[in-house]
Amino acid sequence: MRKKIVAGNWKMNLSFEEGQQLTSELVNMYRDEAIKDVVVVLNPPFPHLYPVQRLVGDMAGIFVGAQNCSDKEGGAFTGEVSAKILASFGVSYVILGHSERREYFKEDQTLLATKVNQALAHGLTPIFCCGESLEIRESGTHEEKVMEQLTASLFHLTPEEFSKVVIAYEPIWAIGTGKTASAEQAQEMHAALRGHLASKYGQAIAAQTSILYGGSANPGNAKELFGKPDVDGGLIGGASLKSRDFIEIVKSFEI
Ligand code: 13P
Predict the structure, then answer these.
(1) S-S: 129 plus which of 80, 97, 165, 239, CB 3.0-4.6 Å?
(2) Hey, what domains does the chain have and what are their CATH numbers?
(3) Which residues are catalytic?
(4) Nearest-angstrom CA–CA distance, 215 and 179
């Protein structure tokens, strides 16, 4: 059985106090509401990672992830944070290939492949994002585009390495716009992604790869999205900043 995962991407939001409060609320709700069988990953900005990790403590099922890591192992790269440093602080996951990093920071597919290598080399689980723009969706080439993103940055991995990767499909036109992909659109792409993974790594690995949906997911639409057979959870932006909303999304699986 592949893992069900709900990851919150806080992006560049929340002060120290706000981050602590949100985390405390989430940990309490997760415990009090006896949530089981869903892995929760909190991906705050870098300075929050350690204090968030301390608050989460040994709470089973909740993990801490970064929003980025360097493609370099270490050394004189001012302002960068390596996978090695993140791992030493107890970070377990790292979001790579988010469309905001591809667009605003010009991260290309070759760079992302190197970042994936760094993450895996230091025991971090990459949450690798892919997704198409509205223009590409309207041109009808969205599947090709997304498959190509995977091929270019992940298909150099061995089957053993690849089996540690989580995929997040995030159509750019649905991110922060309030315009969610329909559950059918998500399912169609997720099934195509799984087929693509199977063609490279075989059915068994494809069947155990978690594929998350991201883009305006909220407590009102998560149930329908997570009810689709190839949607294994979500990568949540805006709604991850409110404890009740995020926990309701976490509880949206039919278990
Ligand atoms: P929203 O949920 O705010 O649309 O953001 C999605 C996202 O980009 C998560 O990485």
Answers:
(1) 97
(2) 5-250 (3.20.20.70)
(3) 98, 170
(4) 8
Is the C-beta atom of 176 inside 6 A of ligand 1?
yes
- Over the stretch 173-201, which tens digit does the pLDDT of each residue have? 999 888 889 999 999 999 999 999 999 99
Q: Which atom of ligand 1 is nearest to the CA of 176?
A: 4
The residue assigned the tokens 């929050």 is: 48
pTM of the model as a whole: 0.97
Asked if 222 and 254 touch (Cβ cutoff 8 Å), the reply is no
What digits encode the pLDDT tens for the residues 103-160? Answer: 999 999 999 999 999 999 999 999 999 999 999 999 999 999 999 999 999 999 999 9
If you measure from the C-alpha of residue 76 to the centroid of ligand 1, how many angstroms do you get, rounded to a whole number? 32
Q: What are phi and psi of 35, to 5 degrees?
A: -75, 130
Which residue bears the tokens 């997911």?
A: 217
Assigned token pair, 70: 């360097």
